[in-house]
TrEMBL record:
Protein name according to UniProt: Rubredoxin
Species this protein is from: Limnofasciculus baicalensis BBK-W-15
KW Amino-acid biosynthesis (keyword) present: no
Rubredoxin-like domain residues: 15-66
CDD domains according to UniProt: rubredoxin
Entry's Gene Ontology BP terms: alkane catabolic process
Length: 115
């Protein structure tokens, strides 16, 4: 065992969850699927090929990898690399918009002052 293994993030260690694109059901490996007698701890890849969505009976191929749930970087909507603005919190966005309005107002006032 090397120390390198310990440097993996939780997201890398945790098995990925899969979401049914047909109905939105999420298969979480840590929970398994009691409907089909799948024991907790079963990775999605280890499910039998004829396993179906317990909610809508969709095939495995309909499921999409949504990454490890409850892991630090497991929220897909936050993975907007490249567009820095989308990484701002709503509060930060409001501040940026308010700041821009205030600057525009000051600019308007300075123009007014020149006349
Ligand atoms: Zn489904």
């Amino acid at each position: 065992m090397s120390d390198r293994a310990k440097e993996q993030t939780l997201a890398e260690i945790a098995p990925a969850s899969y979401e049914c694109r047909a109905c939105g059901y999420v298969y979480e490996p840590s929970k398994g699927d009691s409907t089909s007698n799948v024991p907790p701890g079963t990775a999605f890849d280890d499910l039998s090929i004829d396993w179906r969505c317990p909610v809508c009976s969709a095939k495995k191929s309909v499921f999409t990898n949504i990454g490890a749930k409850n892991a630090p970087s497991g929220f897909q909507e936050n993975l907007n690399y490249g567009l820095g603005v989308n990484n701002l919190t709503p509060g930060q966005k409001n501040l940026a918009i308010f700041g821009a309005l205030a600057l525009a107002f000051l600019f308007f006032l300075s123009l007014y002052g020149l006349n």
